[in-house]
């Protein structure tokens, strides 16, 4: 029997969508494509909020929006659909623990350089239980500044992994 990934401690730091990004959207701001987020009602699991990193419960309203988890437009600044609670939620804080939204069997784990571009050869579909091991391997490479966890099926951004603090 495998351990529940949401309770496994890690030396790496899982981080959610920055709070200012979420506040911008909750305050009526536009998404990465300059559009108002769409409002939907959750029918249950499968709508992971990128701010609290929990699934949006059945009956709760949420936003569907285009999100670009990069500071500037550039060729590698991937933009894609994400979900966000419509009501304000607390930002994920248990950075050393695998986030609750990572409940699929596997994810794309991919490294990015300090220039916010993909580091070629760093991406791999990774079983959920080995995400921190894979991220640690990537952080052994000096050119990797941070890592994204993305859906293995749809490439949607899930969360970011930061280097362990020295």
Task: Give an overview of the whole structure.
The protein has 166 residues and is mainly beta. The chain folds into two domains: 77 residues, no CATH class; 69 residues, first zn-finger domain of poly(adp-ribose) polymerase-1 (2-Layer Sandwich). The protein is 10% helix and 26% strand. The protein has a five-stranded antiparallel β-sheet with strand order 1-8-7-5-6, with helices on one face.
Query: Taking all residues together, what is the mean pLDDT?
Result: 92
Separation of the first and last Cα atoms: 33 Å
Which strand order spans the largest sheet, edge to edge or round the barrel? Answer: 1-8-7-5-6
Structural class: mainly beta
- Overall number of structural domains: 2
Instruction: State which percent range the strand residues make up.
Output: 25-35%
Helix content range of the residues, please?
10-25%
What's the order of the H and E elements? EHEEEEEHEE
Number of strand elements: 8
Q: State Rg.
A: 15 Å
Low-confidence stretches: 1-8
Biggest sheet architecture:
5 strands, antiparallel
Compute the number of helices.
2
Shape, please?
A: globular
């Amino acid at each position: 029997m495998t351990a529940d990934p949401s309770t496994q401690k890690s030396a790496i730091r899982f981080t959610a969508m920055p709070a200012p990004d979420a506040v911008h959207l909750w305050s009526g701001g536009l998404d990465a494509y300059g559009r108002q987020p769409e409002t939907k009602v959750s029918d249950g699991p499968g709508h992971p909020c990128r701010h609290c990193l929990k699934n949006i419960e059945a009956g709760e309203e949420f936003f569907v929006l285009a999100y670009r988890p990069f500071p500037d437009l550039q060729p590698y600044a991937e933009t894609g659909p994400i979900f966000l609670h419509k009501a304000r939620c607390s930002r994920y804080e248990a950075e050393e623990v695998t986030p609750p939204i990572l409940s699929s069997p596997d994810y794309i784990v991919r490294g990015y350089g300090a220039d916010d571009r993909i580091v070629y050869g760093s991406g791999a579909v990774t079983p959920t239980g080995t995400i921190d091991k894979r991220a640690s391997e990537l952080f052994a490479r000096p050119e990797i500044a941070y890592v994204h966890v993305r859906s293995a099926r749809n490439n949607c951004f899930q969360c970011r992994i930061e280097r362990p603090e020295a």
